[in-house]
Amino acid sequence: MDEDEHFEGTLGPGTTATPAYARHEFTAVADADRLEASLSWTPPGQDLEFYVEDTDGNRVAVSATGDNPETIQMSAEAGQTYTFIAETYANAAADYSIDATYFTYGQKETSREMDEQSSLLGPDEVTEFYRSVREDVDSLSVSMASQPGTMHAVTLTNPNGDVVRSHDPTVGKGGANAAVGTPEFVVRNPAAGEWTVEVRNLMASKRAGTKVQFGTLQSDEANPDPVDALGYQQRDYDVSPFAFFEDYAAFADAPVDALTVADVKAGAHLGYDNLVVIHDDAISDASYIDSLDDFVAADGNLVLTDDGVRLLAPMDNEYATDIADPDIGHERFYIAHLEQRYPGHELLEGTRPIQKQLWKIVPMGYSTSNEAPMRLVNRDAFDAAGGTIAGETAGKVSAGSLTGGRSDGTGIHVIGSLLPPANQGNLHPFGLLDYTVSFLGHTMLTNALGYQQTRYVNGQQVSTFGDIDSFSVDPSVTATRDDDGDLFTGGQTNQIDIAVSGNADVLVRDRLPSEWSVVGGDAHTTHVEDDTRFVEFTESVEDGTRTYLAEAPSSLAGTQTYEFGPIEYSLDGGQNWIAIPDTTDRNNVLGADTSL
């Protein structure tokens, strides 16, 4: 558009404690939906900050970086009144100039708007950025960039004040709702109203600049048009997750054939050793379900992934009969992954502990906004059906086997997410892929089929993954401890909670110094060997918590440090015990002062 705004004047002197302001009101011109503005000043050594407010006094755009000029990009509503605000940061009098240009992208079926706001924060300083979201917005994206050599913590809050995303680079991975690395949050169907990004400078002794970019996407159709949103045509694509099996067949020693629902109902699958189902298209077709049951009853090996996991509910074979529809959930995550791995399970043979992601989200069209779909099975129901667990996600079974025993690989294998359909609901200008199975996911499927993967380099075999026609599930048990602290006075009681998780029913015990006594807790026995007291719980556990109360020694001349653990488990009723790594803890007891 040819329309623009221009204001100028002199501002200052002012400080951060007593700032001076210049305000210039303007009304967005007709047909405008975007505004780009800059604030520049002389002499260049001074420092001004730049804001835009709406008629209610809400700051809708901010630039406070220390740069000259300060720049703002924002959405604008035609006919709406706004106010430019120039503010002194720490400077003498300065001559300033504000220049703004309107833009319009017209009324399109798909539109994308980007706003960038910035600020320079002092040590440990906190600031907030705001973005108003309309009712018709389909997705909100927020990305933050820190000045090199600095760190910031960021929190995204919705109009109701609820924290939707957070990121703190100094705290592990930031928790279940956080991003890893540079924050880039995407919220599908965001609530209308004002969204807030709180940014904290984590540098204790220096200022740190940050930029936050807001983006909104709105489309009249379910699949946004990149031509309207980005200005260029997307790459053509024609994708299907079944293409994975076409590629798999090129390297398999056995035939890999596609079968329709009608083929299965006609019994064509009964001539195969393995059957993989990734969908639930015929879940209500009794004849189809009966054909799957017949396959399992005839010692066929059935692998269910993605929505195919739902077929466990209507099936009535010996392995699936105890699993009902309410036991199978559909959840979405940042990525499809195994949160807890049980490495003794055959499905994980040939994989490494660090491998947890089952497939890559972005090339399939899924955003980082907890969109990756997984089918999960209730753990109690899976246990009751005689299943062995290879992995859990959110406390539910995301991978496991329903077979005749720990050394029997024929039956039903479950992988909660592996070959999802591509998602067209987000912008995907570079097209989509048929599948993005990770090495972990590929190896798990190969293990479920009873195959072995062979790797060659320059025609020479260099490694293999998986065991041909071999299946075993070795017990895998993990445990963590939680107690009342690490500093006690003589005679004080410490409650120790031992959380156990695994794929086998085991007895559990803990070690503690013989000077401590056990005064309560879950059903247990105790005995002393040398300087160690053992507390053994009488009821076995596979996934649960065992608790006991330990009393600190009361007659000490000086402060003493004691080591608890490691936690141990037994598979044979207490005849042999296996220590669980990294389960020790140190506790200190303050001794009495005998100098008086």
Descriptive notes:
By secondary structure, the protein is mostly beta strands. The chain folds into three domains: 4-230, Jelly Rolls (Sandwich), CATH 2.60.120; 243-465, 3-Layer(aba) Sandwich (Rossmann fold), CATH 3.40.50; 477-590, Immunoglobulin-like, CATH 2.60.40. Helices cover 8% and strands 42% of the residues. It is built from six helices and 37 strands. The strands form eight sheets. Strands 2-7-4-5-9-16-11-14 form an eight-stranded mixed β-sheet. Strands 27, 29, 30, 31, 32, 33, 35 and 36 form an eight-stranded antiparallel β-sheet that branches. Strands 17-18-24-23-22-20 form a six-stranded mixed β-sheet, sandwiched between helices. The longest helix is centred in the middle third of the chain and has 12 residues, at 286-297. The chain is flat, with a radius of gyration of 31 Å. The relative contact order is 0.08. The model is unreliable at 173-181 (pLDDT under 50).
Write out key terms for the chains shown.
single chain; mainly beta; Jelly Rolls; 3 domains; Immunoglobulin-like; 37 strands; 8-stranded mixed sheet; 6 helices; flat; Rossmann fold; 8-stranded antiparallel sheet; 8% helix; 596 residues
Ends: how far apart? Answer: 88 Å
CATH class of the largest domain: Mainly Beta
**Mean pLDDT over all positions:** 87
Approximate shape: flat
- Give me the oligomer status: single chain
Give a short account of the largest sheet: 8 strands, mixed
